[in-house]
Amino acid sequence: MGIRQYKPTSAGRRAGSVSDFAECTTPRANKPEKSLLVPKKKSGGRNNQGVVCVRFRGGGHKRMLRLIDFKRKKDDSPAKVLSIEYDPNRSARIALIQYEDGTKSYILAPNGLKADDTVASGESVEPRLGNSMPLKKVPVGMTIHNVEMQPGRGGQICRTAGGSAVLTAREGDWAQVTLPSGETRRMPSSCRATIGSLSNPDHMNISLGKAGRKRWLGRKPHNRGVSMNPVDHPMGGGEGRTSGGRNPCSPTAVLAKGGKTRKKRKPSNNAIIRRRRSGPRFAGS
User: Fold this and answer.
1) DSSP letter (8 states) at residue 198
2) What distance in Å separates the CA atoms of residue 109 and residue 29, rounded to the nearest whole number?
3) Residue 9 CB neighbours (<10 A)
4) Is the pTM of this model over 0.85?
5) Could you say which of 10, 101, 110, 212 would form a disulfide bridge with 196 (CB–CB 3.0 to 4.6 Å)?
6) What pLDDT score does 283 carry?
7) Is the pLDDT of residue 129 over 60?
8) Is 226 a member of any domain?
9) Phi and psi of 177, rounded to 5°?
10) Is the residue at 2 inside a domain?
11) Which range marks the domain in which residue 62 is found?
12) Residue 6 in contact with residue 13, Cβ under 8 Å?
């Protein structure tokens, strides 16, 4: 896997780059399993009443959702990896697996998983790449991904490209996991996780190169508040260019930097042992 640079045939191509899809089994003919596809309906950032709740979203290329198995509940049944595929709905690659009874399923592909490999899930499986097992059976210090926060709910943490967490300790019915943000959290040891780190770690180094590629992803141009009128944004208006005259905020005057967004009385606050270090310098550390 790696990044392929475009030939500088235009200004957009000069700065653009794309993944070489070397880890995919058939990158030229990416034909997903039809039985695991469902249509994806676009909302344009609007709720059921047509009100824009998330700005700067809309358009983009048509997509089909791949049904991903985040729970991995088919225990003690080995599955063969048929192919590693590209998924337009996520940054990591996905793997098409087939169980002994013929059932096919999509899972998140860890880094290093290849076609014809074998994966399994359950309490009695070995802690190998791609196997899903409870945290009480995972060796301490091992890299994991697709981690459950509540038993049986399915993986919710570490599902992005190159993402992984580390099981740092275990005591009684609780396991201690260090997340990519630096936060240390305790979870029930019956929660499941998959061994290894996720595929496509070079995703963060890809340069879109032009605004059009951002539109293909369904992202509209982001308009600055200082360029608006006072009726549209608290930072708008003024004679000539201004720096806003106040701390950065949203159109509804909610502070954009430094404000805490987590609820003080959230029940899961007790599960956080060490909070992540805030600020862009510590992101992903």
Assistant:
1) B
2) 18
3) 8
4) yes
5) 110
6) 52
7) yes
8) no
9) -125, 135
10) no
11) 20-204+263-282
12) yes
Question: Residue written as tokens 């998959």?
Answer: 194
275 contacts: CB under 8 Å, gap ≥ 6: 183
Residue 164 lies in a domain: yes
pLDDT of residue 26 exceeding 60: yes
- pLDDT at position 277 over 90: no
Q: Contact at 8 Å (CB) between 87 and 73? A: no
Determine phi and psi for 106, rounding to 5 degrees.
-105, 140
Q: With pLDDT > 90 as the criterion, what percentage of the chain qualifies?
A: 84
| pLDDT band for position 262 (cuts 50, 70, 90) | confident
Given this model, what pLDDT does residue 280 score? 59
What sign results for the dihedral spanned by CA atoms 86, 33, 67, 196? negative
Place of tokens 């790449």: 129
Highest mean pLDDT range out of 19-28, 209-218, 247-256? 209-218
Q: Model confidence at 27, in pLDDT bands (50, 70, 90)?
A: confident
pLDDT value at 284 more than 60: no
Other Cβ atoms within 10 Å of 103 Cβ, number: 12
Is the per-residue pLDDT at 220 higher than 80? yes
Give CA–CA dist 250/267, Å, rounded.
28
- In this structure, the chain runs to a length of 285
Number of domains in the chain: 1
**244 conformational bin, left if phi > 0, alpha if psi -120 to 50, beta if neither:** left
Q: Please spell the DSSP secondary structure of 1-45, one letter per residue.
A: --EEEPP-SSHHHHH-EEE--TTSSSSSS----GGGEEE----TT
Which 3-state string (H, E, C) describes 200-259? CHHHHHCCCCCHHHHHHCCECCCCCHHHCCCCCCCCCCCCCCCCCCCCCECCCCCECCCC
